[in-house]
Amino acid sequence: MPRTTPPRPVDVEAAFPELSGLRRGATRLHPRRGTPTAQDSSVGGPLLWPRAEPWPVCTIPHKRGSGYRYTDVTRKREILAAAGRREPNPGPTAEEIEIIDGFKRGRHAPHLADTDPIPMLAVAQLYRRDVPDLPWTGDDDLLQVFWCGFERHGDTRHDLHVQLRWHRSPDIATPLTEQPAPEVVGREELVPNPCVLHPEEIVEHPYLETLSPDLQARIDAWEGPEDDDGPQYIYDLSTAPGWKTGGYIAWNLTGPRPLVCADCSAELDPLLTADQCEWDPSTTSWVPFEDQPDSDALWANGPTEVSPGRGRLTIAVCPRDPHHPLGLVTQ
Ligand SMILES: [Zn+2]
Ligand SMILES: [Zn+2]
């Protein structure tokens, strides 16, 4: 089933023609629980990975022996998903609850030293045929996204560690069949559920606070108080919530910050945004038509069960060379 975003409640470019010069394409990915194959674009699905190529690992120093067993996280999700589908009595049995309660945080891999290489988690793979707005890198038609299962990197010791790989899929004659995974992850919310994608191209406009002060003031006056029921520029007319490629960053927690390439100082472009939810009470105008009948169901707005950083992570790349260092923004 495709996913279709309803038209925006008002035509903001008609009200503010200068915004038409700032429109930018984005592709909403609309991940939904499913059984993707390596031939599909997916979140949390099997990757088409060349058997001869080393799987990405994290060697940045941090503790990696304590947390949740990766297999416990996936098993718990499977038990709860199956229990949710059970008729006529959905929900886990006493026996299943006992099993899940046994999945505890702990020092499950005490043999791991702080720089031992640990496999990165396969987060997503995107084929260019499904997501045409991926940055151009020659013949490569497949982007693969990984992150470490711990958020203990960077100066703050709370940052994510992300790696990207680009491949030309017809060259992968002998794909890997058994995908590596870490023994332990620091947070369950970094393990994505297998989801198929329903890419949909949309148009976005810049986050309010990145516009000129004059335009911000006119938009503020036009939309009226935030507590009335009218459309709000920030929530309804600028950036889409949920997983997407391209578009603009919603800087709603930190306010806008410059985002420049560490190698060449070019302004970085948003590549992929991973989001804990695809709609919440303030962004219901973005609920796809197909999801509206069940939009309140458990996990309907967060089927990946992923919540990176503060909930939403944008991976940004250099427009001059996507192999330059990444920028990470969490909001
Ligand atoms: Zn790491
Ligand atoms: Zn650069």
Which ligands accompany this protein? zinc ion
The main sheet orders its strands as 12-1-13-14-15-16
Strand element count: 16
How is the biggest beta sheet arranged? 6 strands, antiparallel
Number of domains: 2
Beta-strand content estimate? 15-25%
DSSP helical segment count: 5
**N-to-C SSE string, H for helix and E for strand:** HEEEEEHHEEEEEEEHHEEEE
Q: Give the N-to-C terminal Cα separation.
A: 30 Å
Q: Average pLDDT, to the nearest integer?
A: 95
Fold and architecture overview:
With 331 residues, this protein is α+β, with helices and mostly antiparallel strands. The protein folds into 2 domains: 1-30 and 200-331, no CATH class; 31-67 and 105-197, no CATH class. The chain contains 5 helices and 16 strands. It has helices at residues 12-15, 70-85, 94-101, 213-223, 233-238; strands at 24-28, 32-33, 42-43, 57-58, 68-69, 118-119, 121-127, 142-147, 162-167, 184-185, 195-196, 200-204, 244-246, 269-275, 312-317, 327-330. It has a 6-stranded antiparallel β-sheet with strand order 12-1-13-14-15-16, with no helix packed on it. Strands 2-11-3-7-8-9 form a 6-stranded antiparallel β-sheet, with no helix packed on it. The longest helix has 16 residues, at 70-85. The mean pLDDT is 95. Bound molecules: zinc ion (2 copies). One zinc ion (ZN) is lined by residues 261, 263-264, 266, 318, 320-321, 324. Residues 58, 60, 62, 148, 150, 153, 161 line the site of one zinc ion.
